[in-house]
Amino acid sequence: DKKFNWYFNQKEQLQQDPNHAAENKKIDENDLKKFHKSGSTASDVITTMQRIARLGLPSKGILILMHVVLFSSDGLDLYEEEEIEKRQTEYFNLLHRYLVDHLGVKEALVMISNVIALLSDLRALCEKIDNSEAEI
Hints:
Elements: E1 3-5, H1 10-15, E2 26-28, H2 29-33, H3 39-55, H4 59-70, H5 81-103, H6 105-135
Antiparallel strand pairs: 1-2
């Protein structure tokens, strides 16, 4: 059973109903199916989340990676696209420097290679989602 946990921040924890079950903090494939028209999309998203978790990036690395993805211009017609791509490159370089500092050169090289493969697969997943959502 594939699930990932949604961790509440301090403000959310204070607002949480004391009778709120811990199970409600878990997001599974059925939850994701509510947001996508294609049945396989939810499974693909869960699989991608598992791959991200298996990378073993420290929390700081995940946060930097989120900025790399956030500043992606793939498939978009953006104003100042070059500036956005420049920011993405800066965050990717920051991730690389962080990994070198945190893991050492050899391990960082392996990790950054895995991150590049993941980003490529994430791009393919987004294209697949766009195509499947448009077809339905």
